[in-house]
Amino acid sequence: MQMRKRRWPSDVIVLLESKGERVKARVSDVSEGGVKVRSPKLCGAAGQSVTIFAARQAATGEIRWTRGDVYGLSFRPGLSDDMLAALTGGLYRAPARETFGHRRSPTGRGRHGPRAGYLDTM
Question: Is the Cβ–Cβ distance between 29 and 10 less than 8 Å?
């Protein structure tokens, strides 16, 4: 059984471009791999390419499904951290990055012992 990816609610207005035409849309749901938008002016069908613009970010994907004026957009390999933050109005927080594969201990005593110079102070 495949796990469903985490989703965030949204109420962000974006621009969508498809077939050379740009229209406004309201995002209602966001995941790392796609968004659900509502746009009465978008005329698209499943499989059609679409580019989404938000907060000086752009991502190109495809329309996966339509239900009236609601569209499911899919992005592969996925949306960037910056785009996710823009589409969720800041609700999305990128995972913390570790330095060189491990975190530094607050005392400076990582897996390699005390910091250089530590013993010189004794």
Answer: yes
